[in-house]
Amino acid sequence: MISNKAKKEINSWVEKYPEGRQSSAVMEALKIVQSENGNSLTTELIQEVADYLDMPGIAAQEVATFYENYNHSPMAKNVIRVCHNISCMLNGSDELITHLESKTGVKTGEVTQDGNICVKKVECLGACVGAPMLQIDDKYYEHLTLEKVDAIIDGLKEGK
Amino acid sequence: MFEIEIDGKLVNAEAGEKLIEVTDRVGISVPRFCYHEKLSVAANCRMCLVDVEGAPKPQPACSTPVSEGMKVSTQNEKAKSAQKSVMEFLLINHPLDCPICDQGGECELQDVAMSYGSNVSRFNEGKRVIADSNIGALIHTDMTRCIHCTRCVRFGTEIAGIMEMGGTGRGESLKIEPFLNEGIQSELSGNMIDVCPVGALTSKPFRYELRSWQMNSTESIARHDLVGSNINVQTYKGKVKRIVARSNDSVNETWISDRDRFSYEGLSHSNRLLKPQVKFDGTWKEVSWEVALDFCVKGLLRSAGESNSMNSLGVLASKTATLEEYYLLQKLVSELGCENIDYRLGVKDTKNTINLESNVKLSDLEKIDHALIVGSYTRLEQPMINHRLRKAALRGGTVDVINSMQFDFNLALNNENIIIPCEIANLLASTLKVVLESTNQDVPEELNKLTITKSATKIAKKLLSSDASVIVLGEHVINNDNAKNISNLVAMLAKNTNSSTLNLSKTGNSIAADIAGFFPGKDGLDVNSMLGKDMNAYIMFDVYPEYDFHNSSTAIKALSDKNSFIVSMNSFYNNNVADYSDVMLPISSYYETSGTHVNIEGEFQTFAASVKAPQESKPAWKVIKVLADLLDISGFNYSDSSNVLEEAKHNIKQGHRAEESINITDTNSVEVIWQPSPYSIDALLRHSDSLQETKIGQINKATMNSSTAKHLNLGDKDDYLGVPVVISSLVANNCVFINANKSTPSEEQA
Amino acid sequence: MFDKLIKIFKDFTLSELLLGMSVTAKELVNTKITVQFPEERTPISPRFRGIHALRRYPNGEERCIACKLCEAVCPANAITIESEMRDDGTRRTTQYDIDLFKCIYCGFCEEACPVDAIVETQIFDYAFESREGSVLTKERLLEIGDENKKLIDKTKLEDSKYR
Predict the structure, then answer these.
(1) Neighbour subunits, C (≥3 Cβ pairs < 8 A)
(2) Is the CA virtual torsion B21, B22, B23, B25 positive or negative?
(3) Among B81, B325, B36, B80, which residue's Cα sits nearest to residue B194?
(4) CB-CB contact of B166 with A61 (8 Å)
(5) Strand pairing partners for B186?
(6) Distance (Å, rounded) from C-alpha C22 to C-alpha C24?
(7) Which of A57, B177, B465, B728 could in theory staple to A50 by disulfide, Cβ–Cβ 3.0 to 4.6 A?
(8) Do B168 and A43 touch (CB under 8 A)?
């Protein structure tokens, strides 16, 4: 169920678009609903958002599956987004990702058993200058080495 | 208009045209997958890349507009290498399963790969595999074969009006799929099979049956609705195996409804009547045609009695016969000196029903700027008409509705009036009053006492302000207590607002029945009076009493109680028919006989038989002809159904007109609208298993609002007139809207 | 006159008879080339096109997928196939008939087959006792395939490098 608070927030986005174009707010609406639902979306929620914005369910689903920042299964507390596009790849992001996988013990996109960490491969985050890089919450970590990554992970494990 | 150069040839082009439209027109072949002339341009398959002089990269022909002085090459090195690369790219993930693919042999990808592809694949990595989704009983999916042209997605949004398929994920994980595995709901869904350029969407009933090259194709006409969609019937060893759309822009464009596409399954149903049967002492015996026809003739003559008058012979036919069959049966009967003949079996009172002429061309329907729909759910009842109306609505036309239940239209409604059936006439009358008053004309006395409602003013204003409007009168009002009034009011409204009219209650081939004169003569009895009287004999043409008569139980009772001699010509076996008949003659069903369908714009569409009638069943027009010969009636020397058509065309009858008076009656009781569900309107559809499995095929409900339910003392687990009750606020108060796929009321309604 | 004299001479010396007998005498000592069929057989090319067979995969599953390409390519219209969706969802034949009276043993069916299901074996010495026997049904074809599995596998392997 979409809460009234979320509906209010969605409405504020709907107002930004011309009348009859309320479906343009679908990205924000999904984001709002996702954050309310423990950082993940379900088919039912997507359908509800679609109904609320008077658009076909499949159209909302298209948006929700296109972008990396919508999750379709329960998400970890900390999501590590590792860029694997050209600049980062040339600077060794592949190595980083394999290291992260062995360190956390799960594959990219999966959540560790304690629900703490999930490593995601993402497209360019616009920080090629600091390649290779990753993002946790809103913070960028750049010029990474395996040691730096270890430190970051350990920090997360300790709950920092 | 200017000239452009394509492959060194100068061709004319219109500003705003896309390159591919020009090449298609002049017959230069450009390969394509995502482009479809009836759908929007997506330009996502990139197969139609051509070299445009001056452009650094090859341009997609489907989305490049022509400009003056343009020089295009579809064949040079640049274009060819681009096309070859795209082809290779598309084949990367396409499985090499052509031998088991139903599209094999008629596959656009296969054809284009043969002419533009390379003969070796350089792709050694693993191919992408996608799990299939079950999207219903009509379409089978093999999504691994999908090349993401999005034609099906665009078909859903643009033509069917419901977006059911979509592209989820992105990059390599892009999948075309429906959102929930509920199955496709659209009544036009079968067209997705036609638009799919590969074997991703194929026909489920046809799955793995035959390869495309094995079948013969004959042109035919689909007769389930009043449009008469043009189709190709594909046959193999004397059996109809598949039906596909045939383009005719003035009738059905390139689309056909699912009804027309999948009904053929019923032809091979085990319930077909295949041998003539005669009832001896209460038991049925299979006999030869000679014996059966002889029995008919003797029985009919005996029923005439000593006076030798055929006055107590009744002749009834369903709405699905061909023009030729109507004409011959009518001729036979009138030669016998009998005038009791009718096809309006579902009408409660033939004196009080719709009698409205349609006067709009189908192709003009999409150009109207306003439509008023009265008593119809066009989407499911007349999908092709609805498609035209939807096109008009998308062009900016407005649509008003007067119905007794809120329906899920796939077009934007301007103004929806949900009112109880008895008020429809009142609303139309007060609309007429507004129209007459605002055009400064005399208001007839009957209308004087009417109060003008707000909704009437709204409807009237809209009709008056639009230049090309149409009033659509649907099936829901045929048995309205004010049906005649409604019909007359619509005619008058149309006259005074300069609107055209469209009478959707003339379903099936009823227009042909009118033309052939298949209605009671001056002193003849109509269907209800026949059933009320002691008729000595009946000839019943493809009648299935529990579905066709307005009130099945009384009709069946009337037919079986009296000791009349009944000759039934049917294409399917039916228990009730077997109960009351004395002879059952097996006749051809759709696609097994030659004939003519007359559509709503009066177009005669003649078709040949695609297959022979199975076993001993015979084309009905021949049966009637032989019956006439045996009855010693002259003038039945036809060698071919085209002779009959010729004669029928020279004897076109006018359907009788009702007087143009208005006398509105009011009712206070609960009103029932009985509408057969879309896939049970004729015998063939009822025997088509796949259609019956679909969501639309399973519609069987009596919808009413909670206060009506309370009034009738019903809950949502009860049945009303034998149909499960659904309580919904969508229906007008004091009204029950029944969509039944079983039969007409089994008991007299309250 | 001279010719007549020579003829008389030949007639009396039996020279022509002796000439004929000399061939017989020569063959008496030469090695024999007659083969005692069916006990003995001449070598046959692996490409020999004899009676047809339907093959199976090693797990026993029939290879034929009812694509009907053999039916389409057959110049003599000798093949008749009906297909359906088997319960497990795969495409299979319900009928696969080869009319041996029509067949011209051209081998196109084998060429067309995408899954190497229909093959022509080296077997040419077959007979049937009834008119119906001339039509090889699916069961019979599979039977021939099963009975001669080793032979078929061997010949196809031998021929494979030239394909």
Answers:
(1) B
(2) positive
(3) B36
(4) yes
(5) none
(6) 5
(7) A57
(8) no
How many of the other CB atoms lie within 10 Å of CB of B395? 11
Q: Would the CB atoms of B180 and A59 count as touching at under 8 Å?
A: no
List the one residue out of B89, B28, B39 whose CA is nearest residue B63.
Answer: B39
Other Cβ atoms less than 10 A from the Cβ of A98: the count is: 11
Nearest to A58 among B163, B169, B170 (CB): B163
Q: Is B498 on the interface with A (CB under 8 A)?
A: no
Q: Where are the alpha helices (DSSP H) in B480-619?
A: 483-497, 510-515, 527-532, 545-548, 552-561, 575-580
CB pairs under 8 A between B and C: 28
**Are the CB atoms for B591 and B609 separated by under 8 Å?**
yes
CB contact under 8 A, B100 and C91: yes
What tokens were used for A131? 């390649």
Q: Write the pLDDT tens digit of every residue in B73-132.
A: 999 999 999 999 999 999 999 999 999 999 999 999 999 999 998 888 898 988 999 988
CB B93 within 8 A of CB B28: no
Binary contact (C114, B211; C-beta < 8 A): no
pLDDT tens per residue across span B262-300? 999 999 999 999 999 999 888 999 999 999 999 999 999
d(CA B92, CA B122): 9
Chain A: closest CA distance from residue B382 (Å):
24
Chain C nearest CA to B216, separation (Å): 14
ipTM value of the model? Answer: 0.85
| CB B397, CB B390: distance < 8 Å | no
**β-strand A78-83 against A134-136: which pairing, if any?**
antiparallel
